[in-house]
Amino acid sequence: MIKAAIMGYGTVGSGVAEVLDINRSSITKRAGEEITVKYVLDLRDFPGDPVQDKIVHDYQTIVNDPEVKIVVETMGGVEPAYTFVKAMLEAGKHVTTSNKALVAAKGAELIALAKEKNVNFMFEASVGGGIPIIRPLNSSLTADEIEEITGIVNGTTNYMMTKMSEEGLEFDEVLRDAQEKGYAEKDPTADIEGYDACRKIAILTSLVCGQQVDFEDIHTEGITRISAADIKYARAMGRAIKLLACSKKAEGGYVAMVAPFLLPQTHPLYSVSGVFNAIFVHGNVLGDAMFYGSGAGKLPTASAVVSDVVDIAKHLDVNIAVEWSSRKLELVDYKSLKNRYFVRTTAEKAAVEQAFGSVEYVTAEGVTGELGFLTECMSEADYEKCAAQLDVVLQMIRVA
Ligand code: HSE
User: Fold this and answer.
1) Could you tell me which CATH number the domain at 2-130+298-314 has?
2) What is the pLDDT of residues 313-335, one digit of tens each?
3) For the whole prediction, is pTM greater than 0.85?
4) CA 242, CA 152: separation in Å to the nearest integer?
């Protein structure tokens, strides 16, 4: 029997206990031994809950118990998760986490520490919830040079974009709806400003490059400026607006960004709707691959965490190598990225054409008193120069 501990008994942590319970027999078969939860660390008590007798309030209880081999971290945030996880690894315990903030900030260091202690630090659930993407990148797509990863990696914003698109609603109405349904947090900043997606693409890019990519270096725009009028234009163009997190091989390295994009119907991510996530990967020998599924939620995320627990149970004496060194990767400036841009302005056609040259005008039903147009393909830097010549730019959305 393998003893485990769960740190953080919130949505995901309680999901992990539930998954270990409901799939006990198949998990035991796959892990080779039964996995039982000995401790649950939380600030709160849970009277009446199946884990009520396992609750502890001091992480040192887990650190000091040599019987505990696997620790699940589902607390979220960098601290105190980092202090606790580090202590567990130093004590020779394996750790799996769903915490993207922790992995993005401290992943390289914790991977190195796990290697030094001959244990594992796993984080399948930190990107894409229940979708397997970390293990495929680390273990399966190892024959390829990954040239692009583009994902819809935030379920909250994808739900909101889908709802705005289907019902023609304004951003604030859709945010309220998402909060009522429990898809958006009371403080939705991390999702709607793109910070959550930014950490996720930083993790994926670090894995692809084998070096530390600092999320602070990734140009990030959220969805807060997307309006019902933008959606009308998108519909007129037969496109959908999605928050994409992308990372591409470029001359001199990798370039990454998070921003809303206008996707044509032919784009592999066009039909990814609601709270679903999908990650598109292009390898130089593989070609295209897509990973699609539930990117958040209690049981899907717990499924990914428990898959790590099972993997660890099968490798209790082996450190599975993860290529992610702490050497910082300097990203190529996103301003070198080339796109077409959809622009809305109150300027006259003459001014638009003087600034951008040849453009394609777009009209949207019910939107008046402004011009909408698509530019030619140009770099971000060139777009900025052209846009600076217009007195008013109401909106700019990149075209994928
Ligand atoms: N807030 C995140 C999302 C949760 O909406 O995708 C999963 O990381």
Assistant:
1) 3.40.50.720
2) 999 999 999 999 999 999 999 99
3) yes
4) 7
